[in-house]
Amino acid sequence: MTTNTTTKKVQDASGGPVWDWAAGHGPVTGALSATTGCLAVATTGAATGMPPAWALTVGAAGAIGHTISSLRDRLSARTIAMRSASWLVGAGWTTWAMTSGPLTWAALGTLATIGVGIGAAARTTLLHEEARELEAIAADERHVARELSAERRAIAAEWVDRVQRVCHITLRVVAVEMWPTGTGFTIDAELPAGGTTYDRIAQHSAALSADARLPHGCTAVASRGIDQGRVLIDVTTVNVLAEERTYPSDYTPLSIYMGIPWGYRTNAEAICVFLREQCALVVGPTGSGKTNMVHVILAGFARAADVLTWVIDLNAGSAGLPWARPAFDTNGAPVDGVRPGVDWLASTYEEAILMLDAALAVGLRRKVAYQDLMAQANTDQLPISAKIPQIMLVVDEGAEILTSTDRRMKDLAKKILEVIRMLRAMGVRTVLTALGATGSVLGNLMIRREAKARVCLTGGETEGMDLSKVFPGARGLRPDQAPYKGAGFMGTPESAAALFKVWRILPNQIRDIVHATTTIHPTLDNISGQAAGPAYATRWDADRTAWMRDTTHTADAGPSQQAPIGGLNLSALRTPPPGSDPAPAVDADAAVRAFMEQIDAQFGTAPEPEAAPQPPATPEPPAAQPGLNLSALRDSDDESGPPWMADATAAIKAAGGTGMKPSAVADLVRRSRQAVRAALKAAAERGELVYRDNGPHSVYVHPDHA
């Protein structure tokens, strides 16, 4: 008449102990309940003249009922026997006590002895049942382990044979770990003696993948083990790169210290980068998903509570526009309760110069102003927090800026390199993007040294994708392993270079992230804000963000405001003035014949430069001639050269001692390089310019700077 649970005490709201009457009985309370119940029934039955046989009948029924319930619960025979015996012994004592008197010392002593026996037996059976339950659980675990161990042993034997066949190396497998995502496994093995290193296996990655008949997009990659005599072989069996996954909708706050997720590995686990001290480099050709990758990076920074993002994109600011526009209305006024997803956006050279100057000023000011704070923290690095946030400078196609030969881009490059070189400890880091993994782009030592977190999106592109330049020392990486858009390779100081894929993020999700992270964004600390100056304080003024809302951009001057110039006169492309009758439709063949006759007439009557008469002392403006006018391609007979020569001379003078190449002058005046070279040569012969011959780097210099 006991159960396998114990009586529990609970505390009421007033703090005093109360009994939990819903709880079952344990060995002590069960025995006490059984003996007191028998005494009560015997006393009542003796006083009322109850037939003693009724107690035996109730005891037999209780024993049968507990036997049935115990069999249903699959209890042991010991427990069933104990419970049945408890009912029968209690019923027997009750029957005897009703006939001989329950209040005698013999009856009470016998009852006490029965109670102690029931309690001891209940305790013994309870321990036995717990042991049986634990043994059953352990048996199930051993069964699962045997099955799993058999699978792992088969995998280990298979890959030992495969590595021996392909790499001619005999391994001893220590462990096989199955990935929780079910997309592959990792083999931990010991290398043979004799100085064998893990890269002996890493360089045969493609051959091992082919020998294992892995699906496309799955690889077998070897990496460093726990020591130099061990190797880890990550084998992907499910191609997770083929499917497109959207950016996770969990916009919980992040920190620069806990890592920013940028994508997921082939084992479907997210991969994070830690950019407190290091910069990052993202390489990807057109169509590889690089712009989407930039948005994923900005999404991670927007979720960080201790990061402010400054974006430089000289391609009309397209990388940062979706993150800034939701915070402003059509008139440029801030939207209540919404902050931009990026803290500053530069789309022009002038704005980029202001941003970089502000970043340098902030970093230099922090070095002096926060000395006491760093001393208190006992560190030589500025403690980054929501009160003193880190500035992440994202420069789209920044690697191309660093290698550009344009004078203005060189100025930008110089400032970017200063930020990278000087401001690591003060919490200003950069993320640069590039279009290709070539030596010209990655030739800068500063990029290779500081950009420890590197991404190379291939999208199946092989041209200009020299992975050995992005991940020097990595073995077995081939662009054709990641033929999907948004897929490529990623390596950080915390994880070796390996396949990964970036999440897909869409404009509507960008808007959701901007609204969801508005309360997360930190503000620039007062010391840094004062150092950044008015350029930072007025960065979101309506006049400086007007370009974001300019959807009807037109030329500075319309056709009616421009002076007539020579050249092609394509009157058919001009819009007729209002109120004029449209030109009548003409036959196509007739139009072609008329056009050819016009060309014949024009070139037949136009004198060549040699035969042209000398202009009068005071030349009169030539009459406007309709049709094709190619006179601008001829050299002018004016001693000062063609009309655009004055602008070219002024630009060369402004360039100072560096001068200008003929190609740069041609781009400036919008003339053919052949015509510009001839005019510049003539100007040099007249003494108006000085030609500095330096092979392909030859330039023209103004005499004032020669």
What is the CATH topology descriptor of the largest domain? Rossmann fold
Low-confidence stretches: 1-17, 554-586, 605-626, 630-637
Q: Compute the gyration radius: what is it?
A: 43 Å
The largest β sheet comes out as: 10 strands, mixed
Number of separate structural domains: 4
Shape: elongated
Q: Which features does this protein show?
A:
706 residues; 41% helix; four-stranded antiparallel beta sheet; ten-stranded mixed beta sheet; Rossmann fold; 4 domains
Ordered list of secondary-structure elements with their pairings:
Layout: E1 9-11, E2 17-19, H1 27-48, H2 53-72, H3 77-100, H4 105-167, E3 172-178, E4 184-190, H5 199-202, H6 205-211, E5 220-224, E6 230-236, E7 260-265, E8 270-273, E9 279-283, H7 290-303, E10 307-312, H8 321-324, E11 344-346, H9 349-369, H10 371-377, E12 390-395, H11 398-403, H12 407-422, E13 428-434, H13 445-450, E14 451-457, H14 467-470, E15 487-491, E16 498-501, H15 507-516, H16 526-532, H17 534-537, H18 588-605, H19 645-654, H20 662-669, H21 673-686, E17 690-692, E18 699-701
Helix pairs in contact: 1-3, 1-4, 2-3, 3-4, 9-12, 9-16, 20-21
